Amino acid sequence: MIRTDRVFGLVVILVALTYIVSAYNLPPGNLFDKLGPKAFPTIIGVGMIISAAVLVLRPDEEPEWPARPTLMALGFATVVLVAYAYALKPMGFLVPTAIAAGVLSYQITPHRRNAVLVGIGLSIGLFVIFKYALGLSLFAFPRSLTG
Amino acid sequence: MDIFANLALGFSVALSPWTLTLAVIGCFLGTIIGALPGLGPSNGVAILIPITFTLGLDATAALVLLTSVYYGAMYGGRISSILLNIPGDEPAMMTTLDGYPMAKQGRAGEALVISGVASFVGALLATIALALVAPYLARIAYKFGPAEYFALYVLAFATLGGMASRNQAKAGLAALIGLAIATIGLDNNAGFDRFTGGNLHLSDGVDFLVAIVGLFAVAEVFFFIETHGRDSAVGVKLERVIVPWAEMWSTRWTMLRSSAVGFIAGVLPGAGASLGSFLTYMMEKGIAGEKGGFGTGVAKGVAAPEAGNNAAAGGALVPMLTLGVPGSGTTAVLLAVLMTLNITPGPTLFADRPEVVWGLIASLLIANFVLLLMNVPLVRVFVKVLMVPPAVLLPGVTMISFVGIYSLSGSYFDLVLMILFGVMGYAFRKMDIPTVPVILGILLGYQMENNLRHAMTLSGGEWTYLFSSPIAVGLWIFAAAGFIAPIFLRGMLRRPQVAEADKVTD
Amino acid sequence: MKFTTLKALGTSAAISLLAASSVWAAECIAPANPGGGWDFTCRQIGKILYDIGQVDAPVQVTNMAGAGGGLAYSTVVAERNTDPELIVAASSATTTRLAQKAYGDATADQVRFVGAIGADPGVIVVAADSPFQNLSDMVEAIKADPASVAFAGGSAAGGFDHMKPLQVLKAAGFDDITSVKYIGVDGGADAITQTVGGFTQAMTGDMSEIVGFIKSGEVRALAVLTEERVPGFEDIPTAKEQGFDVVAVNWRGLYVPGGISDEDFQKWADRLQAVADSAEWKQAMTDNGLAPFTKVGGDFQSWIDGVVAQTEELSREIGVIQ
Questions:
Q1: Do A115 and B399 touch (CB under 8 A)?
Q2: N or C: fewer beta carbons within 10 Å in chain C?
Q3: Which domain holds residue C174?
Q4: Which residues in chain A are contacts of C178 at CB distance < 8 A?
């Protein structure tokens, strides 16, 4: 029977093998450094393989994964957050924050008008706090607009 | 006795209406900064330095302000741990383990009061110890070389077995993943980057703040989207906040033990508050045993890490003041502010500038009392956070985390990394893989490898060097005991369950 | 009652903060977290620029930690190349890393180095009870057995602190420098702790890092790596007078974006000169163990070019770069 723990264990084993291989491709390091840059990562990698093997051989009960629509919603939230991360610098703070906060708010409690209000309110409120009370260097709008 | 004369000197410098006002402001700001995930000491200093300049504060007033912010941040870290399951700063991560279950049961107020008092006890005892023994204790740092530090880190990981709820392999795997992440970046001993794929952003390694905010805050948002806020502490009907005297009294030994262990962890420059709160929690969990109910929301489970991390915060001042070695991110910040005030910590500070040292100790005592008076009544205000609808609260927390992380380096890269950690945190919690060991691995991995390699460099490759001092041997013995004890206990308690699991697999 | 008082205090704090951070004149990027040398450079220079009236509003300090300064460097080159109101804190570490290609493809000629206005002299230090009485004792011991002396320093292997003893050994005609033990720890104070504790035999670092320990008598400085003895520390001999022709100072200064006009470059050079001449800066230098070292404008740029070339050569020799 396929179980999450087994799949995860196999993925970890693959990652750990890649990790060990790339450790072996590192240059040797300094003459005085007896252990060198490869040993510690190799130990860690081997440890990962052993504990992942335990998961493959003895998996726990299957976790309760959410249904497909919820997974889609989570995927969408991730995409929104990544887009927000990329937009923050070129587009200034206010607009991306309002959109990202609004979307998250709507996803938690689907209420359109409230989500819009939360987005706008959080974006302006947090900007004022961060910029003026905490003195962080933030820009409200794209730098190119304000100069 | 000398100490009273010294303290009198300190208070004469530090006690005035003006400095008290500053202490209140500092404690308040510190608590808020500490409570906000992603905003940590570096933001604290970013705020402090301009204020000291603009207000033209003299050294004493600035000291009062900065110690208030420092201790305030240590107190504040617990608030979001308990209310939202999101640690405000890294030492507060252990407080999530019992604090959040308590909040889910409607006992957020009690958790905050008990942890607040524990913070007070830890910080107070540490400050007293600092005043009494700092100059002598500084010598401990001279006894800790690469072999001793390596053994200390091994000890921390050896106790991890008690961390997992069911599957020990998962706790171990989580720690190893953290350790592997810690090897990313510049190799200090070879002078080149490892595992960065040529990406300049990774060359400094993965910042543990990015990991902690991702694994906890971002993952929490995913859970709220999945459940729409059910099965959380938000909106839970709160019991009236009363001071739980009896419950608090029952944690008295926990608080005292944790303060002692936390203080020692703080004094060692390579350990710090996170290791302090981790070790105290694991120690108390071990003492309480299976019946203690650690992890389900017990008072001792919030008292131990909070007493431990606040005592460690006080302890960390010992190497900072007497050697100029900052043991943690927060003390590094404090050191920076002292330097801008033209106070250079080091072995001669106690003799050269007694008014500074004793003024600082007096300010710490003042800050500590102000924080207690402020924190306990304010619990009523803090718990109101849980009455904010999740649709407002969680987006707010997310945006705060983004800005906090963004302010680290001003790049999208850390933010994307943080989201990845968020996805990982969500999946790990679903799979019952604890995330605290991942953080511990990231926090300690770099130093662990470094010290191992330094030991091998110094000994010319001789492994016995790792066991060559009494301190190192002692730590190895503790580590072995910490590793074996849970296995032995589990063997007795859990044998039937393991057998059952086997059957299911086959 | 209590809460209203608190609230009022909180509000007043917020307002005072608001006033503190109104309009910024120029921006100084410290390519590290608060607390280090670069942060100090930005904050001190920024403060003095404002105090002596060279700029009419406080200088905003931005911390941009990452890749040992590489992140700030590549950001300035790629995004702020023509910003005339931007200065960036720099030191020997900046040029060492540029010379070693540690900032990716970035090269030292992509920005303009505007000047240095102070320097932290390099030092080589031993514990008070060490058998080495002078630099020659140590060099002879290493020549006899390279594994007998381990150095601790605050930079990574191949970094500036590691280079200092190697330069001395090269000057003494010792070529097997790759076998000399070095451990890179978290900063100079940590390196001293390891040396006083007897785990390493010597510490290599900056003067500012050892001041307190010299005064308390726990360590002895074998040599300072400057042209002449440092004021205030006249009893520490230079490496030069002991017959090892090595000068290594950790200068503190600024660079500006490469695309700004010559007038803007000159403007910053003049401002920096004014800071260097101010009484406030002299006080700050004394308090922090910095020695006078002023090179501003065109002079500084050509000096930097020489340093980069020299570092590149030594790095190649110890195998940090191919």
A1: no
A2: N
A3: 121-242
A4: 30-32
**Residue C210 shares a structural domain with residue C271:** no
Average pLDDT, chain B: 83
pLDDT at C8: 40
Furthest CA-CA distance within chain C: 77
Residues of chain B with C-beta less than 8 angstroms from the C-beta of A4: 430-431
Which residues in chain A land under pLDDT 70?
A: 1-2, 134-137, 143-147
Q: Answer whether residue C10 is part of any domain.
A: no
The C-alpha atoms of residue C201 and residue A142 are separated, in whole angstroms, by: 55
Name the residue among B24, B378, B457 with its Cβ closest to that of C181: B457
Nearest CA in chain B to A47: B176
What is the Cα B148 distance to its own chain's centre? 22
Task: Suggest the residue from B65, B202, B203, B321 to mutate for an interface test with chain C (most C CBs closer than 10 A).
Answer: B203
Task: Identify whether the C-beta of residue C125 lies closer than 8 Å to the C-beta of residue C292.
Answer: no
Nearest to C105 by CA among B200, B162, A130, B306: B200
Cα distance between residue B252 and residue C220, in whole Å? 48
Residues of A in contact with B400 (CB under 8 A): 126
Residues A108, B390: C-beta atoms closer than 8 Å: yes
All residues of chain A having their beta carbon less than 8 Å from the beta carbon of residue C18 are 132-133
Q: Determine how many CB atoms are found less than 10 A away from the CB of residue C23.
A: 8
Coil vs helix vs strand at C89: strand
Condensed to tens digits (0 to 9), the pLDDT of residues B254-306 reads 999 999 999 988 888 766 778 888 889 988 888 887 788 888 889 999 999 99
Check whether residue C130 and residue C238 sit in a common domain.
yes
Which residue of C67, C102, C209 is in closest CB contact with B201? Answer: C67
Answer whether residue B1 shows pLDDT above 70: no
**Percent helix, percent strand, percent coil in chain C, to nearest 5:** 50, 20, 30
Residue C238 within a domain? yes
Alpha carbon of B462: minimum distance to chain A alpha carbons (Å)? 9
The ipTM value here is: 0.94
Instruction: Kindly report the CATH number assigned to the domain that includes residue C207.
Output: 3.40.190.10
Residues C54 and C67 in one domain: yes
Predicted pLDDT at C5: 39
Which chains neighbour B (Cβ–Cβ under 8 Å, 3 or more pairs)?
A, C
User: Distance (Å, rounded) from C-alpha C180 to C-alpha B91?
Assistant: 38
Q: Please check whether residues C127 and C223 belong to one and the same domain.
A: yes
Given a cut of 60, whether residue C270 has pLDDT beyond it is yes
Structure tokens at C278: 């101010």
Tell me whether residue C13 is in a domain.
no
Contact status of C179 with chain A (Cβ, < 8 Å): yes
Residues C227 and C143 in one domain: yes
- The residue-averaged pLDDT of B356-361 equals 85
Each residue of C91-121: pLDDT tens digit?
998 998 888 888 878 888 899 999 999 999 9
Chain A: closest CA distance from residue B175 (Å): 9
Among residues 256-295 of chain B, which lie with CB inside 8 Å of chain C? 269
Domain count, chain C: 2
Answer yes or no: is C3 within a domain. Answer: no
**Where are the domains positioned within chain A?**
4-57, 68-146
Residue C122 dihedral angles phi and psi, to the nearest 5°: -70, 145
Q: Are residues C220 and C155 in the same domain?
A: yes
Greatest mean pLDDT among B20-34, B231-245, B314-328, C127-141: C127-141
**Half-sphere CA count of C229, side-chain side, radius 13 A:** 11
Give pLDDT tens digits for C212-267: 888 888 899 999 999 889 888 889 999 999 999 998 999 999 999 999 999 999 99
CA distance B307 to chain C (A): 26
What count of other Cβ atoms lies within 10 Å of the Cβ of residue B250?
15
A vs B, Cβ pairs < 8 A, gives 200
pLDDT for position C215: 84
Residues C150 and C254 in one domain: no
- The pLDDT of residue C194 is 92
Please judge whether B51 and C287 are an interchain contact, meaning their C-beta atoms are less than 8 angstroms apart: no
- Whether B124 shows a pLDDT value over 50: the answer reads yes
Residues C166 and C108 both lie in one domain: no
pLDDT above 50 (res B503): no
